[in-house]
Amino acid sequence: MDLPSFTVMPAGLDDWDRIWERRAGIPSLHAPRLLDAVRTHLGPQVAELRPFPWAPKANARSKEGDDLGVPSRVFPQWLRCTGCDMLGPLTKFAYANTNPFRPDQARFEHEKCPGHSGRPSRKPVPAVPARYLIACTEGHLDEFPYSWWVHQGGACAAAESPALAMPERSVGKGASATILCKSCGMSRPMNEAQGEIGRPKLPRCRGRHPHLGLFVKGGCTIDTQLMILGASNLWFPATLSIVVMPEAAEETAKSLADELRVAAKTEKRLERLGDDVDKWREFLEDDGSPLADRTDAALAAALAELVAPAPSEEEIAELRRTFDPVSLLVPEWHFLQRDPIGKQHQADKKSGLVLSPPDGGVHPELTARNVSRVLAVDKLRKVNAVLGFTRIDEMERANDIARRLVPLNRDGRPRWAVASEDKGEGIYIQLDEAAVSAWESAIEKTDLWDAHRAAHERNFRARFSETAKDVDPDTRFRPARYWLLHTLAHVLIREMAMYSGYSAASLSERIYAWKADDGRPASAGLLIVTTASDSDGTLGGLVQLSEQGRLNDVVTRALTRAKRCSSDPICAHRTPKDPEDFLHGAACHTCAMASETSCERANRFLDRRFLIDLPGAVDLGFFR
Questions:
Q1: How far is Cα 370 from Cα 434, in angstroms, rounded to an integer?
Q2: In terms of Cα–Cα distance, which of 5, 166, 18, 161 is closest to 94?
Q3: CB 161 within 8 A of CB 144
Q4: Before 56, cis peptide (omega within 30)?
Q5: 525 pairs with which residues across the strands?
Q6: By C-alpha distance, which of 29, 62, 64 is closest to 418?
Q7: pLDDT tens for residues 444-476?
Q8: Tens of pLDDT along 16-25?
Q9: 64 touches 55 (CB < 8 A)
Q10: What is the 8-class DSSP label of residue 119?
Q11: Where do the H-state alpha helices sit in 125-224?
């Protein structure tokens, strides 16, 4: 994370535990379906989802929450003086921050800097992070070995701790710096470490995890590569998210079992209490826990889940291998097929979900366009969990994610996972399955679809990790119905932003688009939501647009605008041809692309020709 004068790295969850110990009670987020998915990746020992250690303040001077915060470490710990180019570790610089209310003023300084003239400066000169790092595909990250590099893999002949400098004369032109040893006079440019040619010149990985403050036991044998501080592939978050839906009976028993596991705190107490309802009730009453009010039947069902044998390592590995992110969407899709009871139906208090159908049902003109279902989501709760992160390759570009996922705690078996909770509102729109299926079958026979499929394979081969070379690219390719609904969601977000009172960047999509498979029914729907961690997102602007007449107007205007783009005819005719490997067709930032916060697929799998007919592409659009 960049601060104005240096960078910091959030510490691992072991350090977060010490922060939470300052409070008598630790909050948790209720999302049992998401917790099960987290356990698939991190192990069955994960007992709960916790928010970030933060509490709101009444005003800038209040003390609430001063005992909380995300612990961090300064990284990289090699700095460069902006006055004399001196290169050295933190210990060679002085830390300055005299105002506790202005962390942006924190900085490291070089006192009595001689500058390039050799005259000591009266005022300390600021230092900045040395911007080179080395990383490997196993997720390890380390400081660049500047002394090792300038001395060609050896030691300085003139000094045990040589004086180094990093003169830069061409700022902003990549690896343009030179490392200079003032003790022995040796120098070496950093551009020798760049690219495939420079990779063999770099040292082997030491297996360092700076956020955990440790090195992997036994080291690492993977080759490293040069990284620039702030590079986009320095880390990719691995996250999962759900819209919380009402729980089934078995899910309620599982969630209560999780709460009992957290209340017990230790494995020894879990073993001592076992599945004895009376012992548990006595313990809960003595502890003052609200769980003591649960019925004997509820406790018995939860204890049966609690004492059930944990899955074996082989079973966990198989669950990870076969995990499909769509499995998190299926329960949401099923619940959205139910008709709300009454004008405004609150599903249950735990989920916080409130649904309502539009007065008069779906507008006749929308029905004629094969829109089969519309729901106003008056209130919803979205929970996002952090599994860890990867380096160099993002989560979906690696086939061995269990090995590539960088752990967030030292033993790799966290008892809890970090999560955030957002509340908001939205609109759910569903297309007629028969019409979508017929359109999809026709599209899959077109030359345009073949071009997109071939471009995806080229993109996969060129950009995906070496560990994913045995993966069939078609398993990562999205079906035609996804392209349709994804493009529709983007044009609707653009249109709704003009009338809902929310900016386009504050609206996001959730696409339900898959073919029937293994007992899972086909789906063709989209949910456009606005969420925030505070009250924003519950103002009702989106819900108002779900009214019968208003939504018809929004859809009509969105489809009309989609017919024209200021980049046409170039945009309208854009089709990938070998060797091109972009993953969109007739879509650009002028007509259909959305901000990073809105799109779940980084503006991939978009094409206006699948939405409406464009010049030169007749009979491809779903809406005619």
A1: 9
A2: 5
A3: no
A4: no
A5: 430, 512
A6: 29
A7: 999 999 999 999 999 888 766 555 566 788 888
A8: 989 888 887 7
A9: yes
A10: P
A11: 146-150, 195-198
